[in-house]
Amino acid sequence: MIEIEHIWKRYGDNVILENISATVKEGEFITLVGASGCGKSTFLRMLLGTESPSQGEIKIDGKPIPDEPDAERGVVFQQYSVFPHLTVLENVAIARAFEKTRLGFLFGAAKKAARDEAAALLDIVGLSHMRDRYPDELSGGMRQRLAIAQALILKPRILLLDEPFGALDPGIRADMHDLVLDLWRKHKLTVFMVTHDLKEGFHLGTRLWVFDKLRVDPQSPNAYGAGITYDLPVGETGDELLKEIDESLSMTSTEELTHG
Ligand SMILES: Nc1ncnc2c1ncn2[C@@H]1O[C@H](COP(=O)(O)OP(=O)(O)OP(=O)(O)O)[C@@H](O)[C@H]1O
Fold first, then answer.
1. Which residues pair with 242 in a beta bridge?
2. φ, ψ for residue 192 (rounded to 5)?
3. Does the pLDDT value for residue 257 go beyond 70?
4. CATH no. for 22-72+156-250
């Protein structure tokens, strides 16, 4: 259970998020949509622990979230880092090595176990045939599969996905949707996924959050932050409301509010 209690995020005078509260049960699949720059990635970084709220608190199972990432929370960004001189298999296994030693070296039985685990994960994400290749030999879809395998080797309970499929072609995206849904069900993950695509949000999530500013001061565009303006159970929301949200998302870009 994740409890988000009145969190605010400010950078200097710039209020990014204001007074967000929500409760998320284990196994929910939350998709987050909102105008560019409204703070969705910042929100994910607070769940990951690389950023802390300016005010308020996030708790997991009643305990404050640790202020650095740990194995409980895995993350997949659209842009992510790999070691170019390591093979695909080694890039997955090394995540386990970093967890164990902080230096990234494993020896003997531990090394073999990490490689076996990595191989099994590559099989699950459909990348076995590329295990001995190098990251720059992978297509965009394959890179995202690698990123997912890297996140999963630490067996996270919570998976954070920040627009992981934004750059992929529609056919490959559909394959990735199937993969993520499959992993979510099999591993009983709690997922938070940012997307620009409302349809994708509704297809994948069990619950959709729309981030937007509740109030706007044209004289002082940074004075107010975004909140969760809609919290919708998927499957129980009519097409009319979806159309309305889609229109409001394209209209209320924070860029326009700030510069327009
Ligand atoms: N470390 C930082 N210092 C100062 N401002 C920041 C920092 N990180 C993010 N911001 C600002 O916070 C705002 C929200 O950024 P964020 O990346 O969370 O938005 P987003 O909704 O994920 O956008 P997008 O959909 O374009 O990825 C932006 O105006 C950004 O410039």
1. none
2. -120, 120
3. no
4. 3.40.50.300
Q: How many helices (H) and strands (E) does the chain have?
A: 8, 10
Distance CA 225, CA 223 (A): 7
Tokens standing for residue 131: 């295990």
The gap from C-alpha 26 to its chain's centroid, in whole angstroms, comes to 16
Q: Which atom of ligand 1 lies closest to the CA of 196?
A: 25
Q: How far apart are CA 31 and CA 25, in angstroms?
A: 14
Task: Write down the domain spans for the chain.
Answer: 22-72+156-250, 82-154
- Residue 91 backbone dihedrals phi, psi, to 5 degrees: -65, -30
Pocket test for ligand 1, best of 31, 40, 194 (most atoms within 8 A of CB): 40
Per-residue pLDDT band at 259 (split at 50, 70, 90): very low
Q: If you measure from the C-alpha of residue 123 to the centroid of ligand 1, how many angstroms do you get, rounded to a whole number?
A: 35
* pLDDT for residue 102 is more than 60: no
- Rounded-to-integer distance, Cα 162 and Cα 123, Å: 23
The 10s digit of each residue's pLDDT in 105-146 is: 666 777 788 899 999 999 988 999 999 999 999 998 899 889
**Higher pLDDT residue, 4 or 111?**
4
Taking the CA atoms of residue 177, residue 182, residue 185 and residue 187 in that order, the dihedral angle to the nearest 10 degrees is -110
The string of pLDDT tens digits covering residues 196-247 is: 888 889 889 999 999 998 888 888 888 889 999 999 888 766 777 778 888 7
Whose alpha carbon is nearest atom 6 of ligand 1? 11
User: The complex's ipTM?
Assistant: 0.95
DSSP letter string over 125-186?
TT-GGGTTS-GGGS-HHHHHHHHHHHHHTT--SEEEEESTTTTS-HHHHHHHHHHHHHHHHH
